[in-house]
Amino acid sequence: MKLLYITNQVCGSGGLERVLAIKANYLIQHYDYEIHMITLNQGKEKLFYDFSDQIVFHDLNVSGNPVAYFKQYKRQINEVVDLVSPDVISVCDDGLKGFFVPKILKKKIPILYERHASKNIFKNVDHPGLLTRCKYAIMSSLMDIGARSYDAFIVLTNYNLTEWTNENIHVIPNPLSFEVNKELNPNAQNKLIFVGSHVFQKGIDRLLKIWETIHTDFPDWSLEIYGKMDEAKTYSSMAASMELGESVRFFNPVRDIKQKYEEASIYVMTSRSEGFGMVLIEAMSVGVPCVAFDCPCGPTDIITHGEDGFLIENGAIETFAETLSGLMKNKTQRLQMGEKALQHVKRYEVAHVMPIWDHLFNTLIKK
Predict the structure, then answer these.
(1) Which residues contact 14 (CB under 8 A, 6 or more apart)?
(2) Average predicted confidence (pLDDT) for the chain
(3) CA 49 to mean position of chain CA atoms
(4) Which region, left, alpha or beta, applies to residue 319 given φ > 0 means left and ψ of -120 to 50 means alpha?
(5) Where are the beta strands (DSSP E) in the chain?
(6) DSSP characters for 300-344?
(7) Sheet holding 290-293: strands in order across?
(8) Angstrom distance (rounded) from CA 351 to CA 172
(9) Cβ–Cβ contacts within 10 Å for residue 186, how many?
(10) At what angle do helices 15-31 and 350-366 cross, to 10 degrees?
C-alpha cells in the first residue's frame, strides 16, 4: 500500500512527531507499506526522532500573504499527489488549513484526518474577550464543515468524541513509544518528572505554583522539567522568582526519555488541555504513577483514578498539591499504583494499535 501523510514539520521533539515516526516505521516494517510524507517549510532541519530511511519526504516551500501562501500550498500539494499517486492520504495538521485539504485536491483519493489536539486547543488563553470568543466560534464552525469532508475522521480519546458532531468519526489511541517494562525500577529516586514544551497549554506555571506550596516539606525530593524552552525562559525565571532554588531543574528535550521516566517516582501533568497525553502512557509503561489535572482530552481515558494514578479537577491547584503530597509520603501506595500502571498501559502497545490503522486504510480503499 502507498500511504501519503500530509503534516507540517516533523523535525521537532513533540508528541505528534514521535507518534508519526512510530506509526510510519511500524507500517513499513510489519505491513510493507510505501510511505511518503509532505512537510511544510522544514528545509534541512535535523530530525529529532528516528524516521525510517525508506520514508520519502516531500518538503513544501510556501510563504507570502495568506492568499499567496494558500495558492502555493494548494499547487504544491497537488504536484506531490500527482507524483506519488497514493492509495490513501492521511492528514495530520491540527491547524485550520488541515480541514480543507479534501477541497483542494484535484484527484479523488481516499482521505482521512488524524486529530492530535483537542478541538478547544484555540481556547488556551485566560479570560478571552468578546472578539476572541467570536473568533473561536467561527473557527469551530469551519472545523465542523471541514471534518465532514473527510472519508474518516480520527480522534485519540472517547472524550474527543464529545467535541465533534460528524458521523465519520473513529477513536484510535496513540501507540506507546517503547515496550512496557516487566517490573518496577527498584532504584527509582525521589523525583517528580514533567515532560512538555514551554507553552501556556502545558501549564508549567500551574506546576510551579503547586511545587512552591509543598517543596519545603520534601527537602529530599526534586522536580525535573524536560522540554523545549521558550526564548524568554519564562518558567525558569518564574522558578527563580519563587526562590525554588535547586529543588527544580529544567532540561532540554532528550532522546532517551525512557531512562528519565525510570529514574522518577511520580509523573505530574498540569496541562490546561491535551490531545491525548503520550507522556502519561510513557510514564506508566515504566511503572510510574501519574497525578494529572482532568483536562480535555486524554487523562480521563488513560488514568484509572485511585488505581494507577490520580485525576484532579482541572485547575484545582490546592487539591493537586494535597494529593501529590500524600503520594510522595506513601511509597507503598506508589509501588502499588506503579504495578497497576504496568498492567493497564498494555492496551496502548504498538502491536495492539497498529492493526486497527491497517484495517482502516484497507477499508477506505475498498469503499
Answers:
(1) 197
(2) 94
(3) 14
(4) alpha
(5) 2-7, 34-40, 56-60, 88-92, 111-114, 152-155, 169-171, 191-195, 222-226, 248-251, 266-269, 290-293, 309-312
(6) HHH--BTTTEEEE-TT-HHHHHHHHHHHHH-HHHHHHHHHHHHHH
(7) 248-251, 222-226, 191-195, 266-269, 290-293, 309-312
(8) 13
(9) 6
(10) 70
Which cell numbers hold the place of 296?
A: 480535555
**Where do the structural domains in the chain lie, given as residue ranges?**
2-175+350-366, 191-348
pLDDT by residue for the chain (367 residues), tens only, comes to 999 999 999 999 888 999 999 999 999 999 999 999 999 999 999 999 999 999 999 999 999 999 999 999 999 999 999 999 999 999 999 888 999 999 999 999 999 999 998 887 665 556 667 887 888 889 889 999 999 999 999 999 998 998 999 999 999 999 998 999 999 999 999 999 999 999 999 999 999 999 999 999 999 999 999 999 998 899 999 999 999 999 999 999 998 999 999 999 999 999 999 989 999 999 999 999 999 999 988 899 999 999 999 999 999 999 999 999 999 999 999 999 999 999 999 999 999 999 999 999 999 999 8
Q: Which amino acid is at 290?
A: C
Extended beta strands in 8-103, E state: 34-40, 56-60, 88-92
Query: Please, which residues have CB within 8 angstroms of residue 41's CB and are 6 or more apart in sequence?
Result: 9, 59, 60, 61, 62, 63
Q: Is the peptide bond before 297 cis (omega within 30 degrees of 0)?
A: yes
Residues making up the chain, counted from first to last: 367
Please tell me the CATH superfamily of domain 191-348, with its number: Glycogen Phosphorylase B; (3.40.50.2000)
User: How many other β-carbons are positioned within 10 Å of the β-carbon of residue 223?
Assistant: 24
State the angle between helix axes of 317-329 and 331-344 in degrees (0 to 180), rounded to the nearest 10: 100
- pLDDT given for residue 123 in this prediction: 57
The whole-number pLDDT of residue 37 equals 98
Find all residues with CB under 8 Å of 243, minimum gap 6, and list them.
none
**Same topology for domains 2-175+350-366 and 191-348, yes or no?**
yes
Interhelix angle 234-241/204-214, nearest 10 degrees: 20
| Fold adopted by 2-175+350-366 | Rossmann fold (3.40.50)
